[in-house]
Backbone:
């Protein structure tokens, strides 16, 4: 009997796909490293609440590790650490490998933009002696989540003379914050009957920015005037300067440990800074790789990856082509042999809302980096659908490096869906696979990830660069 039981157990170990909680797989030493890594990540989140801020921070981190800007025509050598900023909103970094560019590169591509409330161009107005900024939401925002919470204002303004002013109000300890008001329950009878998606209208997402009238003034819009006066004092800006500005309201909360055991991180912008930080930090930490390692941090993923700073932009091809030209090799030879990890978040199974998930094919917190063969919606519409070979390559890398990993789809089939930058890299003739960190409350002002999964994304990036 004992012998039979043993055989059954051996068969189980051999045959069954048996994923384990990451905490049952990792050494205490690794868990300690993972907590340390997450401290750096939380700081990155607090400093980088816009794509521009993330780019500055990434450049600062890279320069501290010996990276330098790459200019077209510069020669390249194995071990060179290079970067190129794309219009202050995206950045591409590379560590030149021992093999020539025609042997392909190892790419981790993530995005730096997150859903938020952008200020409209003609933004400042006064109503009943209260001053507001009109906003236009950016990306997949559930509008009801953005009212009655403290918001910060971040971004830049280019003044008439061409000089630019960086604006960041609400992050420092004694800074004022902003908010969008909501109805009191006493008067919300009608609003409460509306479907969640309609209860707050886009044009109600108006940011409260002031209430004190300009002193001794008897004209109209005295509160608006007083706000403009404050902005003039502090930034030298006038109302017309809003037209050449990019200002955004983002949650005024810093990253926090979640849970009594501090095993999770709650913050704004995990999507996709959790993967961007992992891809970046991994590139900074690697030694000279066999194949040239490239970290691509793009903008505009949340609105479709278009535009000069999105993943569809030629800026990526130009950077890669410049590196290939330095070795007199064609870009297409590099791309067709390259491998790309499209590093983006996925939805974590949420026991509060099990009905939207298919349990066998969901991502779970603490089960490691999650590979998604395809994203998209309905019949895989919009998906790049990585091949069996492309998954096998990644599966081997992850297993060889003892990285905790899982696979999933985003929710039940026909429930909804999502996309990433994967398709745009695959379009370039690059084998590409989606993989990333599972997130609870994705796209909300306070998204939650597990520290273990964050660290596994980092280790997976290191392993891809080194493959
Ligand atoms: Mn994303
Ligand atoms: Mn997203």
Residues:
């Amino acid at each position: 009997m004992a012998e039979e039981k043993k055989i059954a157990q051996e068969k189980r170990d051999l045959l069954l796909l048996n994923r384990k909680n990451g905490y049952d797989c990792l050494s205490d030493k690794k868990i300690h490293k993972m907590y340390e890594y997450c401290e750096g990540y939380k700081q990155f989140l607090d400093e980088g609440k816009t794509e521009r801020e993330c780019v500055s921070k990434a450049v600062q981190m890279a320069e501290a590790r010996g990276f330098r800007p790459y200019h077209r025509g510069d020669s390249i050598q194995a071990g060179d650490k290079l970067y190129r900023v794309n219009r202050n909103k995206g950045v591409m970094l590379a560590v030149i490998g021992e093999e020539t560019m025609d042997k392909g590169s190892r790419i981790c591509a993530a995005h730096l933009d997150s859903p938020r409330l952008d200020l409209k161009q003609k933004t400042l107005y006064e109503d009943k002696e209260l001053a507001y900024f009109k906003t236009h939401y950016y990306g997949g925002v559930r509008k009801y989540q953005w009212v009655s919470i403290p918001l910060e204002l971040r971004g830049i303004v280019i003044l008439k003379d061409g000089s630019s002013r960086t604006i960041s109000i609400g992050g420092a300890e004694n800074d004022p914050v902003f908010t969008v008001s909501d109805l009191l329950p006493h008067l919300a009878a009608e609003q409460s009957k509306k479907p969640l998606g309609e209860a707050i209208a886009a044009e109600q997402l108006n940011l409260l920015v002031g209430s004190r009238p300009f002193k001794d003034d008897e004209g109209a819009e005295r509160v608006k005037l007083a706000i403009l006066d404050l902005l003039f004092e502090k930034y030298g800006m006038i109302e017309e300067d809003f037209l050449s500005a990019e200002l955004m309201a983002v949650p005024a909360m810093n990253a926090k440990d979640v849970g009594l055991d501090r095993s999770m991180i709650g913050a704004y912008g995990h999507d996709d800074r959790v993967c961007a930080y992992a891809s970046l930090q991994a590139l900074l930490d690697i030694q000279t790789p066999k194949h040239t390692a490239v970290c691509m941090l793009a903008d505009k993923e949340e609105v479709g990856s278009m535009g000069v700073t999105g993943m569809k932009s030629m800026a990526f091809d130009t950077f890669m082509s410049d590196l290939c030209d330095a070795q007199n090799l064609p870009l297409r030879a590099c791309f067709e042999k390259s491998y790309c990890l499209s590093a983006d978040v996925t939805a974590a199974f949420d026991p509060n809302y099990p009905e939207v998930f298919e349990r066998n094919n969901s991502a779970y917190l603490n089960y490691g980096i999650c590979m998604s063969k395809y994203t998209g919606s309905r019949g895989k519409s919009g998906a790049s659908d990585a091949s069996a070979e492309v998954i096998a390559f990644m599966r081997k890398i992850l297993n060889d490096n003892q990285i905790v990993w899982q696979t999933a789809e985003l929710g039940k089939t026909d429930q909804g869906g999502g996309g990433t930058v994967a398709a745009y890299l695959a379009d370039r003739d690059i084998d590409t696979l989606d993989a990333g960190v599972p997130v609870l409350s994705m796209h909300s002002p306070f998204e939650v990830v597990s520290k273990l999964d964050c660290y596994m994304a980092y280790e997976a990036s290191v392993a891809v660069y080194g493959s």
The two ends are 46 Å apart (CA to CA). Residues 271, 302, 443 surround manganese (II) ion (ligand 2) (CB under 6 Å). The chain has a mean pLDDT of 96.
